[in-house]
Amino acid sequence: MKHLANHTMTEFILLGLLKYTPTHFCLFVLITMMLIFMLTGNSLLILLILVDHHLHIPMYFFLWQLSLIDILFTVSFVPKMMNDYLLHKTIISAFHCGTQIFLGLALGGTECILLGLMSYDRYVAICKPLQYPLLMNWPLCRLMTVSSWTSGTVNALIHTVYTMSFPFCGSREINHFYCELPVVLHLSCEDTLTYETGILISTTILLLIPFSVILASYTLILVTIIQMASAEGRKKAFSTSSSHLTVVSLYYGAIIFMYMRPISSHISGQDKVVSVFYTILTPMLNPVIYSLRNKDVMGALEKCYRHVYYVLKLIYRLSGCCFTEYKFCLCHMIHFGLTTITP
To answer: Which regions span the lipid bilayer (predicted)?
Structure first.
């Protein structure tokens, strides 16, 4: 009977990231500010890339896809965590728990592949600039993007269904701020060693293969940069590549630590700290790194600012003219009224 109850568990208890102390409340405020900054930065970056035709090249096509994934990834978990903290809520249904596992794996897997594609794009642009239009044509870019989303989604669906089919024993407490596969699987009362092998295989495909592509691409890029005759060309190429590599190091480092270890080695409370890197920190840093160190994006931002300023100035002038005409008409009506009632 107990075994049946484990199979039909309908809810879990999320212990969350924050405790009800003054220090953790300050951390809550900080996370709120980071969330707002992340949403603003990534949304603005997507808007700039979509409206500025100078940014309609594969590099920025991949970049706005990355920003979209970061927005979806963060808003899938962080707002609920903050809402639960304010309402003192810890219960999450099995359905919503499975949904969080699916979203985390789907978006995370897609981003891993996308980062690999971005490194290949940088390799072709820097090392083979004359062949860039041929090797990175639009049909191929769209095909690679669709393939990355499809691969991440299918992998997530398989692992979510398999994970949620395990029986869960004893405590329902998940020492995390959202349902993540290794943490939830740790509650299973069955031997998960065979399934962990499957996780390792899929992680190798979606994580280590793109990471290997990134390392190979940047090794070749570094060699090419060193051989460049122009100091300005070396500086521009190194700036673009180093910004991408910074994001990759933060993201892949945390993901590898989280998913490339046996389930039994996961320490209670440690996983949620690691998860902060790829759910909050990296998505917040992406627009900063890719915009502040990129002349094309900064140029598009400056152009957008000028257009907005011009429109606001025009609206202000028009409203001023309308207000002047309104005052003239009002004064004329008052004068006419006074003259008509004067004996």
So the answer is: 25-51, 57-78, 99-120, 199-226, 238-260, 272-292
